[in-house]
Design a protein that fits this description.
By secondary structure, the chain is of the alpha/beta class. The chain folds into 2 domains: 3-180 and 219-244, 3-Layer(aba) Sandwich (Rossmann fold); 192-215 and 248-284 and 299-323, UDP-galactose 4-epimerase, domain 1. The protein contains 10 helices and 13 strands. It has helices at residues 12-23, 40-46, 84-89, 91-112, 148-168, 192-201, 221-233, 252-263, 287-293, 301-323; strands at residues 3-7, 27-32, 51-55, 74-77, 115-121, 172-177, 180-181, 206-209, 215-217, 219-220, 240-244, 249-251, 269-272. Strands 3-2-1-4-5-6-11 form a 7-stranded parallel sheet, sandwiched between helices. Strands 7-10 form a two-stranded parallel ribbon. Strands 8-13 form a two-stranded parallel ribbon. Helix 2 links the parallel strand 2 (27-32) and strand 3 (51-55). It is globular and about 55 Å long. The N and C termini lie far apart (47 Å). Belongs to the NAD(P)-dependent epimerase/dehydratase family. UDP-glucuronic acid decarboxylase subfamily. It is a single-pass type II membrane protein. This is UDP-glucuronate decarboxylase. One of its GO terms (molecular function) is GDP-mannose 4,6-dehydratase activity.
Length: 324
């Protein structure tokens, strides 16, 4: 049993991770400023008796003085808006949590001799000119655009991790996470899966940006969470950047059609202007994850979508019942 800190614990990945760690009898402390996270995500965790929630902004230096964080053994640093809709509306907060917040969490790890997993992003590759993307690829990121607040701050967060690993021997591991989904995604966050499933179930237009030929890989949340835990547990991952994602990619239009088919929706598929700097391709090389962690995703896209659709449909039916 370990004393574990999760930043961004009220978010999509953070709440899923906390639940699984609690199931393994860990004592989990979750921090979140609730800028995009939801209290509903952590209420079931609080009831377990092995979870403490602290509503706090980790970009405040005072986070290092919180008594609850003394003796922390593991830190999963997940805090950051991840949806373009949210990080573009909160650019300065996004920059701060991925830089200042990362610095403070690494300092906390250094003080407590704690292991540290930093969740970076496939956005570190920008609009890649190399496909698929391996960890040695340095990316093609625009520093002067609407996505830069997220892309570049995550990249700078990786630099903080590098310095703490090499200067202070903090056991840091960096996960570059590719698109992850499940029913826990907010249905208003603007990401592909949540958008398509919500629109299909509500019988509204399924909105595809561009012509839908851009590719994405989609990893079900259970697979991503397993990878993060394996990174924390495995010393071979110390000082490494590791892609975490599904190595099978689909065009966005293929996904729209599959969601429409699985939901048996009559929604029309409509096409809209592609957002600025939207990546044309995105697919990870995961050979390092296979070698160092013995990990690869197990849940197929169709299986994961069926699970996601079932929960979204039940939630929609509950809402309709409340309105009657």
């Amino acid at each position: 049993m370990s004393k574990v800190l999760i930043t961004g614990a009220a978010g999509f990945l953070g709440s899923h991770l906390a639940f699984q760690l609690i199931q393994k009898d860990n004592q989990v402390i979750g921090i979140d400023n609730l800028s995009t996270g939801k209290m509903n995500n952590v209420m079931r965790l609080i009831d377990t008796g092995r979870f403490q929630f602290i509503p706090y902004d980790i970009t405040s230096h005072q986070v290092l003085t919180l008594d609850a964080l003394r003796g922390i053994e593991e830190i999963y640093h997940l805090a950051s808006p991840a949806s373009p809709r949210f990080y573009q509306s909160l650019p300065f907060g996004t920059i701060a949590v991925n830089t200042i917040g990362t610095n403070f969490m690494l300092e906390l790890a250094k003080t407590n001799n704690a292991k540290f997993v930093y969740t970076s992003t496939s956005e570190a590759y920008g609009d890649p000119q190399v496909h698929p993307q391996h960890e040695d690829y340095r990316g093609n990121v625009n520093t002067w655009g609407p996505r830069a607040c997220y892309d570049e701050s995550k990249r700078l967060g990786e630099v903080y991790c590098y310095e703490y690993f090499h200067r202070f021997q903090v056991p840091v591991k960096v996960a570059r996470i590719f698109n992850t989904y499940s029913a826990g995604l907010r249905n208003d966050d603007g990401r592909v899966i949540s958008n398509f499933v919500t629109q299909a179930l509500q019988q509204t237009d399924i909105t595809v940006f561009g012509d839908g030929s851009q590719t994405r890989s989609f990893c079900y949340v259970d697979d991503t969470i397993q990878a993060l835990q394996l990174m924390m547990e495995n010393d071979a991952a110390n000082g490494e950047i590791i892609n975490i994602g599904n190595p099978i990619d689909y065009t966005v239009l293929e996904v729209a059609k599959l969601v429409k088919e699985l939901t048996r929706s009559a929604s029309p598929i409509t096409f809209h202007s592609l957002p600025e700097d939207d990546p044309k391709v995105r697919r990870p090389v995961i050979e390092k994850a296979k070698k160092l962690l013995g990990w690869e995703p197990k849940v197929s896209l169709e299986d994961g979508l069926n699970r996601t659709i079932a929960v979204y449909r039940a939630e929609n039916n509950d809402k309709k019942g409340l309105l009657l």
